[in-house]
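Hi P.,

Sorry for the delay on this. The queue was packed all week, but I finally got your sequence through. Input first:
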Amino acid sequence: MFHKIATSISRIRTLHLLLIIFSLAFIIRTVAWFYYDPHLFGEYGRSDYHDLLNHASQSDWVNFFNDGRIYQPIYPLLWFPAFNSNFESLYIFTLHQIFSIGTIYFIYLTAKKIFGIYYGLIAAFLFAVNIEIIFWFSWAYADNAFYFFLALLGLVATNLFQERKLINYIVFILSSFLCFLTRPEGFFVFLAAIFVLIFIYFSQKFSIKKSIFIVIGLIFILSSALLSSIFLHKKTQSIFLSNFHIGMALYVSSNISSNSLEEQNYLYNVKMGEDIIKYRKEKFNHFYSCFRCRDDRGIIKDNFILASIGLEFVKEKPLTWLKMYVVRLGANLFPSLFSPNWSLVHQLYSFTFSFSIVIGGSLALFFQDPRRFLASALIFMAFVLILSINLFQREIDYRVPLSIHILFGIVAPYGWYKFYEYLKKRFVHF
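Then the structure:
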């Protein structure tokens, strides 16, 4: 039966199959848009970017550049032309549809380039019908834009890994900037791709093992230099800890230890505010000479306090922090196993999809194949992405970690095919 289905599908032109996938994605996301319309601009009727956009519309540049989301300007810049206009809802709907169709197309092109047309179509289809990603389509967050730029980065990085031309380097740098100026974790994907390029360079001069050792050594040296400058240089430490994303990453990663809704609501709505007030009172004199850790009123910045609390926890209880980090990693990769409040249907769907994507992508690494290096590069970028997200993300909505499905999903169809071939060869005898 499956052979007949495959034969029938193979007779359809690739362009027609791709258009069917685009149409399916458009229809499902349109239904989701109207179904979840009350949540259009976020849980409380406003997006995380409303303050930033409001400051820009009023030319309040002081507060604009002091906003915590200033490091994620791409999505609000794309939103700004329609902000507070009569066609704002239609504009965001169109913008998100463009992001979704574009993401599907980039996934198709990347998988096609590495593995072939049919693997590209399967990878594109998997993203098109991923209900967990579709759920967030109507929310005015940067995730839809990030999926688009991450898929673009995966494509241009693959081109660069294959052909190190000047134009590929330029497009790679541009797409990297778009990626990490949309969401902060995009910076780590960019770094991962850079280290792959370094590996390619050294592998042409030395053995594979020596090249891996050199790359690991570079990562260790650069990480040590960064940590030393942060801990030993007070001005650098103050600037680093005053960053919004770093402050949240250190604080949240040292506090969330379960996947319960109650714990997370308590942390964000109660404990965080109490900790800031308590720390400001107790440590007021300790930070009297800190550099750029105070606002214009001379008050220690909240971000600096949150980062300091998290950093103290890491110093005092490193093993506990590491244990919490490992548990969060499991929850971000397979959230259904750590979310007892989800319905059984939701748990089964989430686990099946996550397992298929993550394990399928990882399987491609274990089989000898000329395409294994490019598959390994994408999976390496995916793991770096989830490890960076894991520093700060453990939300019950499981919104941000879904971005790993982009990179894992490109490789997953081929990984399962190679596993099928292995089982067929190993256990089926004619």
